[in-house]
Predict the structure of Ornithine carbamoyltransferase.
Amino acid sequence: MSKSPKHFLDINELPLSELKSMLAASSAMKAKQKAHQPVKPLEGKTLAMIFERPSTRTRVSFDVAMRQLGGEPIMLTGAEMQLGRGETIADTARVLSRYVDAIMIRILNHEALLELAEYATVPVINGLTRRSHPCQVMADLMTYEEHRGPIEGRTVAWTGDDNNVLASWAHAAERFKFKLNVATPPELAPKKVMRDFIKATGAPIVLGTDPEAAVKGADCVVTDTWVSMGDKEGEHRHNVLKPYQVNSKLMSLAKPDALFMHCLPAHRGEEVTDEVIDGPQSVVFDEAENRLHAQKGILAWCFDAVK
Ligand code: CP
Ligand code: NVA
């Protein structure tokens, strides 16, 4: 019987030991790359990358990661594939599995990601859905720990709306055992799926509506765009989110050495001010760089090449 593929779909689906070994492999490969001694465990392997939505970081970092590890990326967009003309996800999964060694997909519909994983016989990686963005948060965990050491027992504050990046931070809080304080406007608060997750796992996540209370004493302050892909733009949304902006005043309530994180792209002057994102506490470009290194750890894990 053939072995089931190792999918990377969500952080809370994997044991902490495996997540930690991915991050350790990412750091080791980063050090080798910086020392001009690249490792190439994926020679002869091909990754198909399907993008149903735009991307800068995910697209370029997966492409470069595959090349630096000795493999080949193939870039596909949903609209250019027969998927765009109604071929099913299941058939697409079956066909691509005959050509490539792994599939990375960005698709808003999370159920479609799960269906792809169900029918693919090669690993499938979640490159962002409406529900979660686990590759981003693996890079964020790597970045936090590079700057401040183990995240276990620390406090991360989220201020903004409920979205895919927050969901992956929540999954990480449960696995890595750090506290997550969440502040959202009441009408953009986490949905039942998150509340059920907290109840079922006992994850140290506190949901609230007051950004100052969430940020007070935090080790890390995180926010994201107020309008995610698939959300409707609108003045009302911006108005209710205005009090959740990360500015110097809000940042001053966190610990003096707190980090500021944002997955990017940022909407300067909306969810974050220039002063904060360009300030000394901001590590947003380290996060962006670590997408490349963290994804090497994820790819190597999917291919059973983590040493
Ligand atoms: N942070 C992130 O996923 O960026 P892209 O949308 O540019 O891939
Ligand atoms: N929450 C954002 C993340 C972009 C990387 C979105 O889904 O658009």
